[in-house]
Amino acid sequence: MPATDPRVDAYIAKSADFAQPILAHLRAVVHAACPEVEETIKWGFPHFMYKGMMCSMASFKAHCALNFWKAELLMAADEVNREAMGHFGRITSLKDLPSKKVLASYIKRAMQLNDDGVAAPARAKPAAPRSLEIPDDLQAALDAVPAARAHFNSFSPSKQRDYAEWLTEAKTEATRTRRREQAIEWIAEGKARNWKYEKC
After folding, report:
1. Where are the membrane-spanning stretches (predicted)?
2. What is the pLDDT of residues 41-56, one digit of tens each?
3. Cβ-Cβ contacts under 8 Å for 84 (sequence gap 6 or more)
4. Hey, which CATH number is domain 6-115, 3.40.50.670, 3.40.50.300, 3.40.50.2300, 3.90.1150.200?
């Protein structure tokens, strides 16, 4: 019986209908190829660990992504679609994925790199940090709750961006209002946007 993390179950269950079979398939292939794998949640999405970071998967509004931690070493000679966040492009259905055999071979090679203690190549830092724009309605809501404003100002730019993007991604005004109210409640308690997935 593979060791699974209930947070990954919850992540899959909360994902869009199109994404659930993709994520379940990827999870099953990883476990089949690497029975010793450990699941966890890092940066808000599922990661698979084997003697360190091995690979991760994520779902978005209209696609999924699969990412290997040492992809530069695994895929140097391969023609891999490197669009979107992952290394197989925008995965919108199971048809967008390589066969189980091909995926398993990547996983086995990733395991071997970790067995051999090969470090991931150093990643170049971006030339300029992404601009951080806080929506006016979030600014006003923060100003109305001093505790929330104080905590928000102490957050790292990435934590602030998580809340800003959560609001701007809302498709309706009602959703945006609900998210803003929830955000202020969490921020006033000093919680990051993905606090549920953070280890204590």
Report:
1. none
2. 988 899 999 999 999 9
3. 63, 65, 90
4. 3.90.1150.200
